[in-house]
Amino acid sequence: MVGLLNKRTQTFPLSLFKSVFFSFKFKLISQAYEVLSDPKKRDVYDQGGEQAIKEGGSGSPSFSSPMDIFDMFFGGGGRMARERRGKNVVHQLSVTLEDLYNGVTKKLALQKNIICEKCEGVGGKKGSVEKCPLCKGRGMQIHIQQIGPGMVQQIQTMCIECKGQGERINPKDRCESCSGTKVIREKKIIEVHVEKGMKDGQKILFHGEGDQEPELEPGDVIIVLDQKDHSVFQRRGHDLIMKMKIQLSEALCGFKKTIKTLDDRILVITSKSGEVIKHGDLKCVRNEGMPIYKAPLEKGILIIQFLVIFPEKHWLSPDKLPQLEALLPPRQKVRITDDMDQVELTEFNPSEQNWRQHREAYEEDDDGPRAGVQCQTA
User: Fold this and answer.
1) Strands across the sheet with 89-95, in order?
2) Residues 6 or more apart from 304 whose CB is under 8 A from it?
3) Any idea what the Cα angle at residue 165 is, between residues 164 and 170, rounded to 5°?
4) How far, in Å, CA of 100 to CA of 298, rounded?
5) With contact defined as beta carbons under 8 Å apart, do 45 and 52 qualify?
6) Which residues, 6 or more positions from 201, have their beta carbon under 8 angstroms from its beta carbon?
7) Where is the CR-type domain positioned along the sequence (predicted)?
8) What is the band of 361 on the pLDDT scale with cuts at 50, 70, 90?
9) Is the pLDDT at 231 greater than 90, yes or no?
10) In angstroms, rounded to a whole number, what is the distance separating the alpha carbons of residues 347 and 353?
11) What is the residue-wise DSSP string for 44-101?
12) Predicted pLDDT at 65
């Protein structure tokens, strides 16, 4: 064991190792060495980790993890040294904005691993499971590789014999139900309660509903809400935003409009007398936004952006234009002098503009020799 320690210290510069090794961490490394050097304690640790050492009354002072300090410098450690809990399983659940507004309960079918009942999670007949002789039950193999003069590197890989399990079962003794995997696949239906006011990306936790593994606490199932886009409303926090098109006559003379809410109610909005709605104006209706999560009787605001639709060309005959102008605010008068240039106002064509810029860039590229190009001489 001491020889192994000496070999592994070669991976680090001597000055760094001395400053660390002879510091307060020496005490913790010594405790790790105490566990590693005692076969009985090492077996206890491989099976149950630090907690098993404590319960076994090792007499050593307690610290976060004796193997954490050892692994920080040298790597290694048993298969169970880090694993106490299974991995969490994440699923996305598609929801509509109506679901988040009104609340909904959805059923989700999941596939999960459960402990095999026939072998009770052993994987085979009782007594047939033995510690892997190649990795000594650690599930990992350690290789030392020289990376330079006086420098070595430790590489830790999964054991090829037991596939990281730290144990093996004779094929003839394996459980027929789970084929030695200790778990079987099961379909389970869970009910997901989406509450009013929940948001896109919000997580709903099902504690302990993850895959089961022998000697491990099951992980959690985490449902992540994925909101679909809505054809009318956009959400911003507790508020809802929508766009409403109105005619020019409505913008100038007033209007009444209806809005269908996410809970199928009909709202009637009316512009005030004499009010002029400009293109892009924002108005709001209070308490008609999204319900607030955990306080569903309170709501945000509904924000409405107005888009004013102007008439098409020549919608009014020329002889009636003076009548319309008489009703509108007067136009600005411009005094024209002889030194001014009168030009024609035409429609803008973006595609034509892009073509013109491309042609100008091409012509500039053709002006003069390109940089970095030299003539060849015989």
Assistant:
1) 89-95, 221-227, 203-206
2) 242, 243, 244, 259, 269, 282, 283, 284, 285
3) 120
4) 14
5) yes
6) 224, 225, 226
7) 103-187
8) low
9) yes
10) 12
11) HHHHHHHHHHHHTT--PPP-S-HHHHHHHHH----TTTT-SBPPPEEEEEEE-HHHHH
12) 45
190: which 2 tokens? 């869970």
Q: What pLDDT does residue 180 have? A: 87
List, in order of start, the domains of the chain with CATH numbers. 2-74 (no CATH), 89-128+170-227 (2.60.260.20), 234-309 (2.60.260.20)
Residue pLDDT, tens place only, 35-67: 777 776 666 666 556 656 665 554 444 444 444
pLDDT at 91: 95
- Which comes out higher in pLDDT, residue 254 or 59? 254
Separation of CA 347 from chain center: 47
Question: In this structure, what token pair is assigned to residue 224?
Answer: 């992540």
State residue 222's pLDDT score.
97
CB 112 within 8 A of CB 184: no
Q: And the tokens for 297? A: 């009787």
